[in-house]
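Action item from last week, closing it out:
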Amino acid sequence: MENRSWHVLILFLSAFMVSSCGLHHVSSKDKMCFNRHCIDVEIVWRKKDMLRGLQFRDSLAENSGMLFVFRRSARHSFWMKDTYIPLDIIWLDKAGRVVSIARNVPPCKKQTCPSYEPSADALYVLEVKAGTVSRLGIRVQDEAVLKLNNSR
């Protein structure tokens, strides 16, 4: 059974995209929870925001990250060009189940950087500070619950 929060997210983002022209992302007070551990997430879905991602940021709080929401499931690859923080990358399917993980992905300061690709199709990708996956014990097949901030 698919997690209802993910369906709510898709409906919310669809309505939000139609009603907002100038906003780049949703409030960072939204949370993605794995078991009892929650991470504050900044949600992005616009192509230009996805391309920038966490580039040029000097730090990332311990329990925070960026959630990328794609229009369709695929093997969305990521790279670390101009990203200054080592990251864990978590790919999730449409039901919010972890399908692939890349741990401790290093920053890349070169012109050509390697790409990191999941082992299965994903609709969502969560980037968090390196070590978070190990610290929280996140594994492939774990389910995430998205808790949207209701104060909008």
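Closing note: The radius of gyration is 15 Å.
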